[in-house]
Every structure is written in structure tokens, then in C-alpha cells.
Design brief:
mainly alpha, 5 helices
């Protein structure tokens, strides 16, 4: 665990920038996917919108140099891990092998989202201990 905290402490600016980039990606996904006639699309977009608002709240709190509510940070971290794992499942279950397309290179995005979620959770527990 010490190695992971050391890694995250040395790359803190990367993860703060990642939060901003992920906010842009989630907003893009929400606005491109929303379909008011499809209930499953509304459900997925609603969950992504909750994630977007949680990450926005944490970002604004850190800009204003206030401690964000710990529950929202944990929510943002857990759902980032959830979305990352969901993307991994989608990549592995998509069958494009007969067309000669290898999708394993796209695993970098879900791994990045999973590591971002871990960063949110690790720094949340570190703040709550102190």
C-alpha cells in the first residue's frame, strides 16, 4: 500500500488533470448518448450524470480549497472504478475478431478510469484518517 500511495503522491497533478479530462469525456458521452425515448439510455445517462456532478463538486471544492464531502468523493471513486470495469467487460465481449480488429489497445482508457477511481478513494481515506 505504501508503494501505491507514493506513486499517487508523485503523480498528483496528473490525477487532478485527469479529473478535468474525465469530466469532459463524461459530459461528451452524456450529451451524445441521451435518448429521451429509450428508458435504458435515460437510466445510463442518469447514472453518468450523477458521476459527472460528483466529480464536478469535488473539482470545485478543491479549487476553492475546501474539503469536499467524503461520501461524494467515495461515490466518485467507486463509480469511476465501476465504469472502468464496465468498459473492460464491453471491450472483451465485443466480437470484432472476424474483421481483423484488435480492441485490446483500447484497454488503456478503462485502466486510466480505474486508477483514477482508486486515487479518489485512497486520498479520501487518507484525509479522513488525519
Amino acid at each position: 500500500m505504501k508503494i501505491i500511495k507514493c506513486f499517487y503522491n508523485k503523480t498528483i497533478y496528473f490525477w487532478k488533470g485527469s479529473r478535468l479530462l474525465l469530466l469532459i469525456l463524461f459530459a461528451y458521452a452524456i450529451f451524445n448518448e441521451i435518448d429521451l425515448k429509450n428508458i435504458s439510455s435515460l437510466f445510463v445517462c442518469g447514472i453518468m450524470l450523477l458521476q459527472f456532478f460528483a466529480m464536478t463538486y469535488v473539482l470545485i471544492s478543491e479549487i476553492l480549497k475546501k474539503y469536499p464531502f467524503i461520501g461524494i468523493k467515495i461515490f466518485a471513486g467507486i463509480f469511476a472504478i465501476f465504469f472502468g470495469l464496465l468498459l473492460v467487460v464491453l471491450i472483451f465481449t465485443t466480437q470484432y475478431e472476424n474483421q481483423g480488429i484488435n480492441l485490446y489497445g483500447f484497454l488503456l482508457l478503462p485502466l486510466w478510469i480505474i486508477f483514477y477511481g482508486l486515487w479518489e478513494i485512497i486520498f479520501t481515506t487518507e484525509i479522513s484518517i488525519e
